[in-house]
Amino acid sequence: MDRTVIAYVVYLVVSIGLTVWVARTLSHHGRVFLADVLQGNEKLADAVNHLLVVGFYLVNLGFVALYLSSDDTVEDTRGIFEALSTKLGVVLLVLGAMHLANVYVLNRIRRRGVMEREQLPPVAPQGWAAPAAPTAGA
Predict the structure, then answer these.
(1) Sign of CA dihedral 31, 39, 50, 90
(2) CA 122/CA 109 separation, integer angstroms
(3) N- or C-end of the chain: fewer Cβ atoms within 10 A?
């Protein structure tokens, strides 16, 4: 078998495996964060979580597929490792950037929700007080 094909197969197996592992980890542990961001709405948190996972898969697997081809031919075992290290390094950087972007956006949404909750009075108003009469010296 051609060494370039071996490099492609290893790249695909490792990249897809990493994408699935990261997506599952983010989905499992991000659900609690989403529930907090969405103020305890569990059904909405699950729906948003699922949509984020689908988008994550589409973007990352699309990138893996586009980044598969190479103009260089791999001629020896060292070349396999060099090609794989470059390709997998870029895939890992893209996975990390996607993760950071998701966390940043969700944190901004969470902060906005916390600020809105803090602006509400802790107790509902009981009634209105009449304005004080102006004093003679003022």
Answers:
(1) negative
(2) 22
(3) C
Assess contact for 26 and 18: CB atoms under 8 A. Answer: no
Count of helices and strands (H, E) across the chain: 3, 0
Report the pLDDT value the prediction gives residue 122, as an integer from 0 to 100.
Answer: 67
Helix (H, G, I), strand (E, B) or coil at 133: coil
Q: Length of the chain in residues, anyone?
A: 138
- C-beta atoms surrounding 28 within 10 Å: 10
Question: Considering only CA atoms, which of 34, 97, 85, 28 is closest in space to residue 60?
Answer: 97
In this predicted model, what pLDDT tens digit does every residue of 14-58 receive, in sequence order?
989 988 998 898 888 888 888 887 777 889 888 888 888 898 899
Specify the amino acid at residue 99. H
- The string of DSSP codes covering 29-57 is HHHHHHHHHTTT-HHHHHHHHHHHHHHHH
Q: End-to-end alpha-carbon separation of the chain, Å? A: 96
Cα–Cα distance between 32 and 49 in angstroms, integer?
10
In one-letter notation, the amino acid at residue 26 is: L
